[in-house]
DNA sequence: AATACCTACAACCGCCTTTCG
DNA sequence: TCGAAAGGCGGTTGTAGGTAT
């Protein structure tokens, strides 16, 4: 098979940005004649362009049915959902977004959505929690613990300690998140900012568990985790989590607390009744984050068929997709038809070695 | 004010698949 | 059935505009 690259033989053909005059010629020609053979079109239309270039310009920019402008939230969510299902099949994804081209979606993914997922601790390729973030954490913590020997290291230990604190902060929030997502009903699921390291922990513990590194014990600081497992996929049996219990709390916002004090509170919370913890209350004491905190699992997307592959994990801020009426996606595609939408959707408690999670927290406590 | 750097997006490149004589 | 042409796709690059130094 094989063929010579388009226009390779014609070195004089123009490249680079299209001028308004060229656009006009192309639009007028296609308006009158249709595009026909793209290879012959440039000559017929009076353009010194490669046919391929003409096709791209038309399909990606000049086509009358192209929707210009920024992507809506619904479109954004739909892209993430579709990418989780289809991967980099931009043309397939584009067919579900009326007026959007594959190129436009691809660019938007690379410049916006990919970074957004990364910032939420989600691997944009697998749509699962990132596992790479924890790789350097032991070294980070070890370095932070060397504070007394700071003069021996050519490192900015203050910066390292800050990073370690930030890591702890996110780990602890993530732990809460997992427990909350397992114990709290979807409508009032925990709203916690910052899931990066949590997702990493989950990934790391999953990996460690599968490798037999971590123990099988499912006791977490005195809490029998098997009790939590009974709620998997069945939120009807959950005790209510009322807003009253949230608003009546007068404790300081967790987001304003130091990692250490956070840890103390979490320890006491785990030993007691997690459901009564204000940190787990929706819209509670300043923890609500419109950007990051809407990823609680819903009952609908937790009840996946056992025969179905595990749903991919996608951005946490798309829960509207699961609660609103079908979004504006083209071709009748609605968010409700797409896979689970939470960062932790599809994660079964049985698959999470909570002992491993806790062990990592112990490492931090030992600091 | 000049320069360097960053970001977003349009456009290109090369490979693969499909179509057609 | 074969092979060339054409179309399609995904990855990458180039460029323009904005921002920081």
UniProtKB/TrEMBL annotation:
SUPFAM superfamilies: Homeodomain-like (SSF46689). It holds the Pfam family Myb_DNA-binding. One of its GO terms (cellular component) is nucleus. Residues 10-62, 63-113 form the Myb-like domain. Residues 239-259, 277-335 are annotated as: Disordered. Keywords: DNA-binding, Nucleus, Repeat, Transcription, Transcription regulation. Residues 10-62, 63-117 form the HTH myb-type domain. This is Uncharacterized protein. The lineage of its organism: Eukaryota, Viridiplantae, Streptophyta, Embryophyta, Tracheophyta. It is found in: Nucleus. SMART domains: SANT. One of its GO terms (molecular function) is DNA binding. InterPro entries: Homeodomain-like_sf, Myb_dom, Myb_TF_plants, SANT/Myb.
């Amino acid at each position: 098979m094989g063929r010579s690259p388009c226009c390779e033989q014609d070195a004089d053909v123009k490249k680079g940005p299209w001028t308004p005059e060229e656009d006009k010629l192309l639009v007028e020609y296609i308006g009158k004649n249709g595009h026909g053979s793209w290879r012959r079109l440039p000559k017929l239309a009076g353009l010194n362009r490669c046919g391929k270039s003409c096709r791209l310009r038309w399909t990606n920019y000049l086509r009358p049915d192209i929707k210009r402008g920024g992507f809506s939230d619904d479109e954004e969510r739909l892209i993430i959902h579709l990418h989780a299902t289809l991967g980099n099949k931009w043309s397939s994804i584009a067919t579900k977004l009326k007026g959007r081209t594959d190129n436009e979606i691809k660019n938007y993914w690379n410049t916006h959505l990919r970074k957004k997922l990364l910032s939420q601790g989600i691997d944009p390729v697998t749509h699962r929690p990132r596992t790479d973030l924890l790789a350097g954490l032991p070294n980070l913590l070890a370095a932070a613990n060397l504070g007394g020997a700071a003069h021996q290291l050519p490192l900015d230990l203050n910066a390292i300690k800050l990073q370690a604190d930030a890591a702890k902060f996110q780990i602890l929030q993530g732990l809460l998140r997992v427990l909350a997502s397992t114990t709290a009903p979807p409508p009032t699921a925990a709203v916690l900012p910052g899931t990066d390291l949590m997702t990493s922990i989950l990934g790391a513990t999953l990996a460690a568990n599968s490798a037999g590194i971590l123990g099988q014990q499912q006791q977490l600081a005195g809490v029998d985790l098997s009790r939590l497992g009974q709620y998997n996929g069945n939120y009807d049996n959950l005790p209510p989590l009322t807003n009253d219990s949230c608003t009546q709390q007068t404790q300081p916002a967790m987001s304003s607390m130091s990692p250490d004090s956070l840890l103390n509170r979490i320890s006491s919370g785990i030993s007691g009744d997690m459901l009564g913890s204000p940190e787990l209350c929706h819209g509670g004491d300043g923890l609500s984050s419109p950007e990051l905190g809407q990823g609680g699992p819903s009952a609908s997307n937790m009840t996946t068929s056992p025969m179905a592959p595990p749903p991919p994990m996608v951005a946490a801020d798309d829960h509207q997709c699961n609660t609103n009426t079908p979004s504006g996606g083209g071709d009748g595609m609605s968010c409700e038809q797409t896979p689970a939408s939470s960062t932790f959707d599809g994660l079964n408690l049985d698959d999470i070695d909570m002992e491993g999670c806790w062990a990592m927290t112990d490492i931090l406590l030992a600091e």
